[in-house]
Design brief:
About 75% of the residues lie in helices and about 0% in strands. By secondary structure, it is mainly α. The protein is globular.
Length: about 425
């Protein structure tokens, strides 16, 4: 027997299952748009962002619950940062430190200063400009790794430099995320504050993070390996995946609730300590499908917050943002790589691979918006710059292949696998 519900009851039932509706719309939309992007040989992240735009409140049609999507995105941020920590390689950074460290810092400084000047020229405070510029200075881990993988360039000298460069940027962003709430308290403090207060606030944060880091090292070396061995002996893939998620989410919550650190920092350090042991790294890889799913929800939720009207209302500002990301960052990278006498091809490979922004920019911009350090207009400019730069990036590589001869030996392609952020 088919049951028919009055309109009011039907609305109430939809509200009752809003979580399921939001997840269903997000996953289905991400799949369709991601598939189309893949067929067009564009990054799938672009498809996920477009799916969010279509489901968001700023476009007609189906509207998912942006508040619920934002909460799901928080889990996505935790698992994204966990993946960044899991793939963090100090050895890779040390091998290319002479060029990656100064190169990344110079490029980030250049993008930050240019962004700050643009925002200041519009009449906004310098602090808004510096935060805006900083969000444009870091490349997307997912886009960069998959672009290099597609070109079979990860194991080339240029690929290793780009990955090392990216590690420096990621570490800088982790520090920015840690100090963002403290900076907001200092900048937005209603009364005049002294330098003693500033140093005391920063010192308190550093002390808590230091204690948490020491605790994480102890847990990572003394507790987790034995626990993971016990879990592995059960020969249950479900328990192994559950253990990894419990570690990532549990330590993130401890970082937030006990040490006043961010969820993101706790997840990043959790990934790092698991990366130190082979069994931890192997166990963490089993949770990759679930981590990728929540990462997709994160990108969809970011798309929901984007108001595409800014493309029509502020095209000049969006174009200026795009120029900073592509022209400014490419120019800075070319200067450094040529100073260090890299080949023309290697210089352009590094420069173009970094000429986009992604997940860290979204996280930092979102935190700045929440803490009152960024206006919604500037937030939408960051999202517009990200969407456009991610879409343009493959075409920049095609231009490079056409006009810049390939001289580096390309390793034989390995079996297809997904590189997770």
């Amino acid at each position: 027997m088919i049951a028919f519900y009055p309109p009011i009851l039907k609305v109430n039932r939809m509200e009752e299952y809003e979580l399921i509706r939001t997840i269903a719309l997000s996953i289905v939309g991400a799949f369709i748009c991601g598939f189309i992007a893949r067929k067009l040989k564009l990054p799938t992240i672009l498809g996920y962002l477009v799916a969010g735009m279509l489901l968001g409140p700023h476009t007609p049609g189906f509207i998912a619950d942006a508040h619920l999507a934002k909460q799901l995105a928080e889990i996505g941020i935790i698992l994204l940062m966990f993946g960044v920590g899991l793939h963090f390689s100090l050895k890779d950074l040390i091998n290319v430190r002479k060029i990656a460290l100064p190169g990344a810092l110079f490029q980030m400084l250049a993008a930050t200063l240019i962004g700050a000047v643009v925002i200041r020229a519009l009449g906004f405070p310098w602090i808004n400009g510096f935060i805006f510029g900083l969000t444009l200075s870091v490349a997307s881990t997912v886009v960069l790794l998959r672009a290099l993988e597609h070109r079979h360039s990860i194991d080339t000298p240029a690929g290793k430099i780009a990955v090392g460069w990216l590690i420096v940027e990621d570490l800088a962003m982790v520090l920015a995320i840690v100090f963002m709430p403290v900076l907001a308290d200092i900048i937005l403090y209603e009364q005049e504050i002294s330098s003693t207060f500033i140093f005391a606030s920063l010192g308190s944060v550093l002390l808590k993070i230091g204690i948490f880091a020491v605790l994480m090292i102890f847990i990572g070396r003394r507790v987790l390996p034995g626990m993971l061995v016990l879990v592995a002996k059960t020969k249950s893939r479900e328990l192994s995946s559950l253990a990894i998620l419990a570690i990532a989410l549990g330590l993130s919550y401890v970082a937030y609730s006990v040490f006043d650190a961010s969820f993101a920092l706790g997840a990043f350090l959790a990934g790092m300590i698991l990366n130190e042991s082979e069994i931890g790294h192997r166990s963490a890889e089993q949770s990759e499908p679930l981590r990728n799913t929540f990462a997709v929800l994160f990108f969809v939720s970011v798309g929901m917050l984007f108001n595409p009207r800014i493309l029509l209302e502020q095209p000049v500002l969006v174009f200026a943002t795009l120029l900073i990301i592509i022209v400014g960052k490419v120019a800075a990278a070319l200067v450094i790589t040529r100073i260090f006498r890299q080949t023309r091809e290697a210089s352009w490979t590094v420069a173009i691979s970094l000429a986009q922004i992604g997940e860290f920019s979204f996280i930092l911009a979102g935190m700045a918006l929440m803490n009152g350090l960024m206006l919604e207009q500037h937030y939408n400019m960051v999202l517009a710059g990200a969407i456009l730069s991610i879409g343009i990036n493959p075409f920049l590589f095609k231009w490079m292949d056409k006009f810049i001869p390939r001289t580096e030996a390309v390793p034989a392609p390995a079996n297809d696998k997904t590189l997770a952020a």
